[in-house]
Amino acid sequence: MITLTINGKEVQTPEGSTILEACQQAGIPVPTLCYDPDLRLAGSCRMCLVEIKGRPLYAASCVAPAENGIIVETESPGIVAARKVILELLSARHNFNCQVCEKNGNCKLQDYCYQYGVKESRFNYGEPTNYPINDPNPFFERDYNKCIMCTRCVRACEDITIARAISVDNRGHHAKIATAFDGNLTDSPCVFCGQCVMVCPTGALTSKVSAGLGRSYEVDKVLTTCSYCGTGCTLELNVKNDRVVGVTSNRTETGSPVNKGALCVKGRFGWDFINSPERLTTPLIKENGEFRKASWDEALDLVAKRLGEIKTEFGADSMAVFTSARVTNEENYIAQKFTRAVLGTNNVDHCARL
Amino acid sequence: MTNSIGELEKDADCIFVIGSNTTENHPVIGMKIKKNVLQNGARLIVADPRRTDLAKIADVYLPHLPGSDVALVNGMMNVIISEGLADLDFIAQHTEGFEEMAALVAGYTPEFVAPITGVPAEDIRKAARLYAESGNSVICYAMGLTQHRTGTDNVKSVCNLAMLTGNIGRPGTGVDPLRGQNNVQGACDMGGLPNVFTAYQAVTNDAAREKFEQAWGVSLPSQNGLVLTEVINKAHHGDIKALYVVGENPMMSDPDLEHVGEALEKIDFVVVQDIFLTETAKYADVVLPSVCFAEKDGTFTNTERRVQRVRKAVSAPGEARVDWEILCEVATRMGYPMNYENSEQIFEEIRTLTPSYAGISYQRIENGGIQWPCPNEEHPGTPYLHKEGNFSRGLGAFTAIDYIAPGELPDEKYPLRLTTGRSLFHYHTGTMTRRASALNEHVPTAELEINPEQANALGIADNDLVNVSTRRGRLEMKAKVTDTIAPGVIFTTFHFTETPANLLTSSEFLDPTAKIPEYKVSAAVVEKI
Question: What ipTM was estimated for this complex?
Answer without folding.
Answer: 0.97
